[in-house]
Design goal:
heterodimer; A: alpha/beta; Transcription Regulator spoIIAA; 4 helices; 30% strand; globular; B: alpha+beta; 6 helices; 40% helix; binds adenosine-5'-triphosphate; binds magnesium ion
């Protein structure tokens, strides 16, 4: 997992397979990075994700709660069609916005 | 003649996999099922749907069936014509109310950051999903998907 801070927003480049086995470490890493960099905004990039199941939804909703709990915002970007289907099915896009590019996701979080 | 034999293999085949309730085995179950259904020549989309449904059922067995503890998860896959049948079974806690469990966004473990979408995903990605469960004894999820309709039409 690669992270960077862009305009005060933490950008997380997720990699590999987002299943129950993988999410625990990822969740802790994201929370650590949010705290360490004092970021209120979060962007999750799915460009490097080959597989995702409902564990990924739980990861997003969990981060949504922790980010909004600190008055921050979050957005998703670079979502492939199979992942998009799971997002649409779950209704998660009603609370978290989805963007083509990292730049527009960062902008959306920043402007809010 | 030779072709008929090949066809017979494709018409009916099965495999079984049993493994301990470890989250690392979720990927194993997905890889095994994808390798097995390859003989039906599925589309990428169908393959993703099957892998996702299997991942959901195996994860449920590990998280809910065995509560993250010890136990055995079994997977049976069978091909019959252009169709694949998959059974995921555990001897864990079982489900009290299956109708409630099937509701989108119902989860008994919100504190584990579960979203309650696993069964909904299985039902959307497979053609048929049947859940049998006995509290205290275990859960059996049967899923079916039609991959190619050609063999049915012959
Ligand atoms: N194998 C199982 N053994 C015991 N209970 C189960 C099993 N599978 C599902 N359940 C019950 O059904 C509920 C719904 O399952 P479902 O997969 O839809 O959601 P979840 O696992 O809670 O969340 P998610 O799948 O989104 O991470 C679970 O919360 C659990 O109570
Ligand atoms: Mg589940």
């Amino acid at each position: 997992m690669q992270t960077s801070v862009v305009n005060g927003v933490l950008v997380v480049h997720l990699e590999g397979e987002l299943d129950h086995h993988a999410v625990e470490t990822i969740r802790n890493d994201i929370e650590d990075q949010l705290a360490k960099n004092h970021c209120r905004g979060l962007v999750l990039s799915f460009r490097g994700i080959d597989f995702m199941d409902s564990s990924g939804l739980g990861l997003i909703l969990g981060r949504y709660r922790s980010v909004t709990g600190r008055n921050g915002k979050m957005a998703l970007c670079a979502v492939s069609p199979p992942l998009r289907r799971i997002f649409e099915l779950s209704g998660i896009l009603k609370v978290v916005s989805m963007h083509e590019t990292e730049e527009s996701a960062v902008r959306a979080v920043k402007e809010a | 003649m030779g072709q008929e034999v090949t066809h017979a293999v494709l018409q009916q085949n099965y495999m079984k996999l049993q493994f301990p309730s470890l989250s690392a085995n979720e990927a194993l179950a997905r890889m095994a099922v994808s390798a097995f259904v390859m003989q039906l020549d599925p589309t990428m989309e169908q393959l993703t749907e099957i892998k996702t449904a299997v991942s959901e059922a195996v994860t449920n067995a590990i998280i809910h069936g065995y509560d993250g503890g010890e136990g055995e998860v079994r997977m049976y896959c069978a091909i019959d014509g252009g169709m694949v049948d998959i059974v995921i079974e555990d001897d864990g806690a079982g489900i009290e109310d299956i109708e409630e469990a099937r509701q989108p966004m119902f989860t008994s473990r919100p504190e584990l950051e579960r979203s309650g979408m696993g069964i909904t995903i299985m039902e959307n990605f497979m053609d048929e999903v049947v859940i049998d469960s006995t509290p205290g004894q275990g859960t059996k999820v049967r899923m079916r998907k039609v991959i190619s309709r050609t063999s049915e039409c012959q």
